[in-house]
Design goal:
The complex is a heterodimer of chains A (152) and B (753). Chain A has 152 residues and is α+β, with helices and mostly antiparallel strands. Chain A folds into 2 domains: 3-78, Ubiquitin-like (UB roll) (Roll); 86-151, [2Fe-2S]-binding domain (DNA polymerase, domain 1). Helices cover 34% and strands 16% of the residues of chain A. The N and C termini of chain A lie far apart (47 Å). The N and C termini of chain B lie far apart (70 Å). In chain B, helix 4 crosses helix 5 and helix 16 crosses helix 17 (722-736). Chain B is of the alpha+beta class and 753 residues long. Chain B has a 7-stranded mixed beta sheet with strand order 11-13-9-22-19-20-21. The chains are: A alpha+beta (152), B alpha+beta (753). The interface between A and B is large, with 60 and 68 residues.
Amino acid sequence: MMSTTKLNINKKTYAVEVNPSTPLLWVLRDHLDLVGAKYGCGVASCGACTVLLDQTAVRSCSLPISAIGDKSITTIEGLSENGDHPLQKAWEEHDVPQCGYCQAGQIMNAAALLKSKPNPTDDDIDQAMTGNLCRCGTYLRIKAAIKTASTY
Amino acid sequence: MTLIKTSINRRSFLSAALLAGGGMMLQFNWLAGCSPAERKALKMPDEWFEMNSYIKIGENGVITLFNPNPEFGQNVKTSLPMILAEELDVDWEQVIVEQADFYPERYGRQFTGGSQSIRQAWTPLRMAGATARQMLILAAAKQWQVSAAEITTDQGILLHKSSGKKAHYGEFASSAAKIPVPAEVKLKAVSDFKIVGTSKKNVELKNILSGKPLFGIDYKTEGMLIAMIVHPPAFGMRLKSMDDSIAKTMPGIKSIFTIDSLTEDIVQNFFDATSFTKFAVVVGNSTWEVLQAKKALKVTWEQEPERIFTMASSWTPGAENIKAKYPAGLESSEDHRATMKEASKKPGNILRRNGDPESAFKSAAKVLERTYTAPFLAHNTMEPVNCFAHVTADKAELYGPLQAPEFIMGTLSQRLGLPKEKIHIKLARMGGGFGRRAYGHHLIEAAVISKQIQAPVKLVYTREDEMTAGIYRPTYSATYRAALDANNKLIAFHVKAGGIPETPIHPDRFPAGAIENYLAEGWQIPSNITIGAFRAPRSNFMAAAEQSFLDELAVELGKDPIDFRLELLERAKTNPVGEKNDYDAERYAGVLELVREKSQWKETPAGVHRGVSAYFCHNSYVAEVVDVVMKNNAPHVEKVVAAIDCGIVVNKDAAINMAEGAIVDGIGNALYGELSFKDGAPQKDNFTTYRMIRMNEAPKSIDIHFVQNEQAPTGMGEPPFPPVFAAVANALYKATGKRYYNQPFINELPKKS
């Protein structure tokens, strides 16, 4: 059933008229035109749809908006004002992307990692990033960029 | 030569053409600044002057370069314009790149595949850049009343040294655009290159990293509906009937119906490969609503009899039509393995014979025989199949991920009953391709759906739809035999390879040409499981089998694996066997020598287990050394060193990135890649069961080394992929003492303790 759900996304408040069981991913993409979070699997096993729920990385494809409540959501579009978050800068420095499809999810997942561990080791990065697939195989650059970002 | 007067707010004719189709709600960034940091500082010109299909110059000296080929992560959107910029002799910071639409009359070949983008565009793009540069020089010469030969250029500036006259390109763009195209132009010497051979960052970086809409799946127009399809659950099945009584009442659902994407009257071509032609379709307002109704739709299926269809026998216009078919039946991997085993024991089609291999094998003191197999693979591009279509009575507009627009245009035109010039295909950035998107069935499906509902629509496959829809890398088997005489000398070589439904063999590749008595045979078994190109088709399996066998043979002969390959290549170079050997033995040996040096091959560190492999495909040569270490008693690929000869490297860091990716991809598929079937149904449908390589399984380091030469550039996207499989297998042998003949290797590897 349709109802109004209030969402706090990228420091703005939105009121969306959708079935509250709709996953956040589709609300972002279809209703709010925030398409940075990508659909990859729909079952939380590729990480392309990763966003932040407060400070935690979540798979937006499997998070119904009814479960969000007052928590704030940050998507890649809201990670920084001008695309200059340390991770975005490091991703540029290492020219990480190939196709680019998974990269917003990778960056958002890494953003949560750096919040909890500002100076992650290789093992920390492996452990945190294992849920994010990159079919082009840019893993080495992603890891290098996370380490670079942690030095900024 | 056409003069285009484009006002500043009409950002480009591309987006203007699209706006005519119904308006965009999302602001697509067609313009990608080459220098992300400086992009904002670039002032757009008031007027653009078109020098040719690829180059527009603004009166203020800003340059627009068009990328003709579809971008799927191989970085052509940056690398191809670099070639134009080199010969045009401009400042890369003054360049804007735009993606061209599908427009073969302007751009010729617009196919991303076969690692051919750079190779095939090399000369035409250099010519286009040099021609425009020469026209600017001629325009300046006329105005300045000096000889054109005395005018030089540097980074977008025209200079006449003796008179001191100087101008930027924009000042002469208007007059140069009116000058007839010179009959001859001079190309730069390789040693004078300033842009080609350097590393330029991906022109789309900023947009990718800030989540801008770039991909087909991000596309949206006013009034656009969402469509999903339901396809049969198994190959060999077809739609019988459907019950939409519940689904059609669900919220947001507009329409439910069935479509025939390809009708019997259509003459198909090779890239029309599609497993299913009749679908149930659900159309609605939003993706989630359509997905719910798709689940509620009740469809019944039935077995499909043999499907016969008409196909053009080649790409050439006017080629004769032939009858092709998909057999009936519900196939299983268990049966595939049995039929392949049987086929590999029967004589195949002889594809090459040198000397007298049969007698040599009869007289052999010893014969080494090994059989290698690999399963079907799904491409699993991160962005699932999707396509926007808006079809009206007199035209069609399509936008989606597609590698090979020219190969679907004819079929689209037949199916829609519209002439080709009324069908407009825009080329979206693709979230991966790997060959999957050479097949344009989704354009036809989206177009037929749009025509039926008379509205703009975006067709979206779920991950499950995509993984179970076919067009896979085939399953293969190859049997190798080597005959050794009493002195343990190699006297004959035999390869017999086949697959379902195609043979993977390239009979004239190495080691053909290097062995006196040589026999190559192929076989194939028909199937209704559709297959298609998958990163280095056929090579990705043959390299695995051949380079594993040569490794085992080297051990049998008591030789170092690199020395053994170099000996064979020396024979192929100095005294080749047969006349038709499609590789250059010297360049092949070159990459092996380079990888031997760079990996410090002979100085394997303690605890490291090392394997080598080398292969030639897509006009390039790659050798790789893989280091495996044991972690908790299970093997882990720790390091890879690669040597690549692909001629001139256009964009160095982008090429390194792609090679790193190909190596990670190869390790992943060698260890984990597998799609099996039961009663026609694929046994995996999402990443929960289809294992893909993840960050913790990737090597810690990958070192890429290029052979330095001035050869015209050749393939880069595919060649680094095939050799990895055997390099991994050969290193695993060193680590575990066991040979790995059947992919994926994970099935036989020791488990972590």
